[in-house]
Amino acid sequence: MKADSHGEATAINPVAATLDLLGDRLSLALLGHAFVSGTTRFNQWLDLTGAPPSVLTGRLHALVDAGVLRRSPRLGASDRHEYLLTDLGNDTWQILVGIWGWQREWTPEGAWQPDLVHTTCGHRGPAAVMCQDCGATVASNDTDIEMDARTVWTVTSGARRRSTRGPALDAPQADMQFNAVMEALGDRWSGAITGLALSGARRFGEFRSALDISPTTLTDRLTRLCDAEILTRPAGAHREYRLTPRGRALFGVFVFLIRWSIRAYPDAPSPLRIIHRACGSLLTPVLRCRGCDEPVDRTTARVESVAARPTSP
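-> structure tokens emitted (313 positions)
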């Protein structure tokens, strides 16, 4: 709970809180390095990301406060600590895998993204989204997204808002920068607009009526999403915006973000529901291997960095 401008308590919005925490390129980079290379120490992240120490400290503390990482004394060095993934932190794996898969398929630098390998069958490459209840593969046009427009994006989590166009990170490994996907999900407004577009919103007025956002800010975010080829404005359509194939492919990332928000804030009612139309159930997304059609999770798959991939003889 937090207090509003009148001093009254308001409930945390799980979706907004999740976008505040994970809609940040550095936070995602920290988690990505934890999964791909097992990074746990401050100096390791400092070298890998090139982030200013004060900024890195702030992100690590935010992830600890959210229960994504836990700070633990290093063995034999009581004055030093490492940051370890919690169960909630491990649950971000599907989000990261979705982002890497999207970038591999839809961005020029995709070949530099970590690769998903299904160890059960050996298939290498992005996974599909599957409905856990009925086992069917699910795309954005197979679902209905129900939301409470009065509260879905307007209740803040109390965290600061972060712009997608913040200071660049001069990192040695650009594969952890998430630059392309951050235009769509890199702050609450961009994530909100992408989610509304996935639910069928098209017109400027529809986005405006569902968001507590100024027309100037909305225009700015819509312009960014068009520049990133997530949205497009059809010729002759007055103030109408439609998802491109590239934008629709973000569906998997979006549904796992929503799923994680429910896991992270179990006592806060979610203002957004994704219904799988074919079976009528509330969508519980899981990953499906495109090679053998079996479910994929952290116990049956691994992620490999570019340097770890086998080379041809």
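The chain has twelve helices and 13 strands.
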